[in-house]
Structures are given as structure tokens and as C-alpha cells.
Amino acid sequence: HLFGWDVNNTPNLDKLKNDPHFIYKPAISCSVRTICSVTTFFYNKREPDNMQLLLKNNTNIMRLANQNGYDTYWLSMQSDVSLMSKVMEFAKHKKFQWQYKRQFDDELLKDLKKIPFNKKIFVVLHLKAVHSPYNKYVPKEFQKFSGKRGAYYNGVLYNDYVISSVINYMKKHHKNFVIYFTSDHGEMLGFPEEQG
After folding, report:
1. Which band of pLDDT confidence, cut at 50, 70 and 90, is reported for residue 28?
2. Sequence-separated contacts (24+) of 150-153 with Cβ below 8 Å
3. Over 22-87, what HEC string results?
4. Which residues, listed in sequence order, are joined to residue 125 by a DSSP beta bridge?
5. Are 145 and 7 in contact (CB under 8 A)?
6. What is the pTM of this model?
7. What is the C-alpha to C-alpha distance for residues 15 and 4, in angstroms, rounded to an integer?
């Protein structure tokens, strides 16, 4: 809804539309798969075939954060397998889906609140709610829409809650911070305009 969709599934982020510190723009993903898109994002890699950057780690953002005196965290509701391990291997503090009792993204907020923000900190919160099967990763109280597309809208609604909770927590308890949120790729939900 924040970007003009007619389904009201971003009520919390909609409230920030006129905040001069809140900037939102459409983006183009570098891949249609999480493994490739997340890895590319965290390696500052523009050329699709430039595997040398992945092998050398010179542009790994987590590694660069460590080199510049940041304490680094990777908190994830996803697994620690696959090529993404190449990205997160440089995080000093890691926690993954299988280490959380409750399998919903808002669990990450509890760990975010334990981080001492009295020094340079770089945190990645790796979310899961807007992944198929959507309702599996969305608490019941956020399952407001029905059907296949409705399940996706529920994921977006819950995602809106989690992101706005992160923003509100940081605003209330900390100064001098920047939050970037990006999806790694889009979803195809079977709308005619998607052309299959």
C-alpha cells in the first residue's frame, strides 16, 4: 500500500510517508533467488559474472564493517546454509532460525534490544515472513486476508509491523542511526499483468 497498491497492508509505514527522515523508493533486484540477491547485495557486486569479488572478499560489507571498528551482528529467521554463509561468516555475532523458540520475525526484536548501541554497531535482521508459504511465517493475529494472494498480503502486513517496530524502538532508545530495509527479490502472485 505504501507504494500505491489498493490493499491496505502497510498501515504503520504509511504513517511515516510525510516524515522527512523516511525515504522509500522502488528498487530493482539483482536476482530472483535469495541466495544470489543477498550475496550480491552484501558484496557491492555490480557485474553478474564477476565471481572474483566473491572469492576475494574485498568488498564484503560485513568484513568492511569489522575493519572499520563496528561490532557486527547477523540475526536471521532463515537458515545459515548456502552461499549466503559467505556473507555472514564475517559477522562476529550470529543467530539463526533454528536457535529461536518462536519462528516469527518479531523474535529478532528481542535480540536487537539486547545489543549495546553505545559503540559502532552494524546489524542485519534477516526476515522470513514474506516467503511462501506465507501464513506459515505469519502469526495468527496478522492473518487478516484470505486466499493465496491474501496469504501474501498477510506477510506484507506482518512485515510492516516488524519494520515499524524496529524503527520505533530505535527512535525511542537511540540517536544517530540509519536503517535500510530492502527485499532481496519480488514475488509473482499470478496477476494477469505479471504475464505468467
Report:
1. confident
2. 152/187, 152/189, 153/7, 153/9
3. CCCCCCCCCCCCHHHHHHHHHCCCCCCCCCHHHHHCCCCHHHHHHHCCCEEEEEECCCCCCCCHHH
4. 75
5. yes
6. 0.90
7. 14
pLDDT at 107: 96
Which of 12-19's residues contact partners 24+ apart within 8 Å by CB, and which partners? 12/160, 12/161, 12/163, 12/164, 13/160, 13/163, 13/164, 15/164, 16/164, 16/167
> How distant is the alpha carbon of residue 35 from its chain centre?
13
Q: How far apart are CA 61 and CA 23, in angstroms?
A: 22
* Grid cell in block for residue 44: 557491492
Cell of 185: 527479490
Find, among 91, 103, 107, the residue nearest to 165 by Cα.
107
β-partners of residue 76 are 126
Q: Which residues pair with 186 in a beta bridge?
A: none
Task: Please count the CA atoms within 13 angstroms of the CA of 71 that sit on its side-chain side.
Answer: 8
Residues facing residue 73 across a β-bridge:
93, 123
Q: Retrieve residue 168's grid coordinates.
A: 520505533
Query: Which DSSP helix (H) or strand (E) runs through 12?
Result: helix 11-14
